[in-house]
Amino acid sequence: MGQDIEINATGGGAFAAYLALPESTPAPGIVLLPEVFNTNDHIRSVADGFAAEGFTVIAPDVYWRQEAGCYLPYTDEGRAKAQALRAKLDTDQFANDLGDTVTALKARSECAGKVGVVGFCLGGKFTYLSATRHEIDAAVSYYGVQIHEYLDEARNLHCPILMHFAGIDPHVPQDTVDAIQAHMGAWENVDIHLYPGAEHGFNRHGHPPYSEAAADPAMQRTLAHFHRLLG
Description:
Elements: E1 3-8, E2 14-20, E3 27-33, H1 41-52, E4 56-60, H2 64-67, H3 76-88, H4 91-107, E5 111-120, H5 122-133, E6 138-142, E7 161-168, H6 174-184, E8 190-199, H7 212-230
Parallel strand pairs: 3-4, 3-5, 5-6, 6-7, 7-8
Antiparallel strand pairs: 1-2, 2-4
Helix pairs in contact: 4-5
């Protein structure tokens, strides 16, 4: 079980984050970014899972500027609320908050120094932006939305990024994956994997549309990526 902490934002204010610690610290750090539903119980369980693998993990409240502490369930009502909050989210502003999260993690005594970022859906988009805007050491994006809208930033990519995409995904359709692949797929520091038959959200263990056939190899690749680059 983790604990809630507070992170100071540049320019004023503070926001909550979930901190999960491994058995032994200091350890490599991971910032975990959620789906559109924010840092709910499922995402906290994912944080706990990475901690069990030997990482110090922080998962921030993405919507703290819109409605602090709003962590949403996988229901129709939760989805509607999540989309309303996402519509009010300022991409550049939260990218700055994400930079503060990275800085806060690096400063903690439980963090050994190197930090990676992993995110799902909305969090996958911000993982990519973190890899182009922040001083991080590794990135993993799961079915990140809207990445194709920021491909002009790919030239600023300064850490290796692993990208997982679902074969059946109306939020990230095949032509979008193709555009990302065409733009940066051949780069040495970019590793893209497509999981045929899997749907958007395939890593959501215990909730539809979880797919063990996609989630297991994706997580194996993710852990190998982080262990190699973060130590």
